Amino acid sequence: MANPRESELTYPLGDTLPGPGEALDLLPGLRWVRMGLPFALDHINLWLLRDVQDGREGWTIVDCGIHSDATKANWERVFAERLDGLPVLRVIVTHFHPDHMGLAHWLTERWQCRLWISATDYQLARVASSSTVGMGGEAAAAFFGSHGLTDPAALDKIRGRASYYPSMVPSIPPAFRRLMDGMTVRIGDHDWRCLVGHGHAPEHISLFSETLGVMISGDMVLPRISTNVSVVDVEPEADPLQLYLDSIARLSTLPADTLVLPAHGKPFRGLHARIDQLQQHHQERLAEVLEACTAKPCHAAELLPMMFRRPLDLHQTTFAMGEAVAHLHRLWLGGLLRRTLDADGIHRFSV
């Protein structure tokens, strides 16, 4: 959903964007790369940080883009024209989702360098690259069916997406270095503190540099859209929305003038305002869901037109279903709704 209060944020670069295969200088030693995605959300932001490791000068890459020939070609252009003749020394991945993890294996192999990522997301990426987790296949179809998505054509398409994750993340680096909440990573002349976030991914790592006043937020804080927070089939009774809200509340302790570098959208200032907007957005959705379930018992699928007031393709529908279940679960696990499994095998929620 587009942010109706976006005017409360400021964009220091205006509408300037890096083109394909380009890297735009944001600060000394910090460059912005933008790669295409084959979805309605059609891009991901990636970051280059000037670095020194073991006496070698070079660059750290943060996030990778999906595995595709086009993304590889754009990276090769960046390597040829925007690394100042220096190598890539390491690759940091904020979380396991395919647009962030996809080319990690190719990049680390190409440059003979190490992947840095949280342990939870590394292990889940290993599992998902051989059998899609929460994004397609029989288990996902059965899970969505149990929450009211019963259209046979849609379920057949979900079953057919068993290779969704492996198609964009075919390989995972065989070794990694672990990132944990509160760790300090020295990158070039600056210390970056690891900030763990939950709810969007199991152990998402954002990076904050106090000296630069910059946070690489990954997907935890986006300026124009709300981060997807979903329940998926591998953890069917999860409460990711509470985890997400708790996580962004902790980010409000960062300075108000922090420059936020998001995975999608443009770099912006207004972190505290954006956190307030996201909190308000989810509280409004929770109130709407509670009202609907007060009127009659509801399942997740019938809430989609209320929660997402635009046409959804199948890719968006799977994310929307996960979000609807997440809001129902927050109210259920918070004691405001009860859940029943009816004779048709569908979970319904009522006061």
TrEMBL record:
InterPro entries: B_lactamase-like_C, Metallo-B-lactamas, RibonucZ/Hydroxyglut_hydro, Sec-metab_biosynth-thioest, WH-like_DNA-bd_sf. One of its GO terms (molecular function) is hydrolase activity. Keywords: Hydrolase. The keyword Transmembrane does not apply. Residues 43-264 form the Metallo-beta-lactamase domain. PANTHER family: ENDORIBONUCLEASE LACTB2, METALLO-BETA-LACTAMASE SUPERFAMILY POTEIN. This is Zn-dependent hydrolase. It comes from Roseateles chitinivorans.
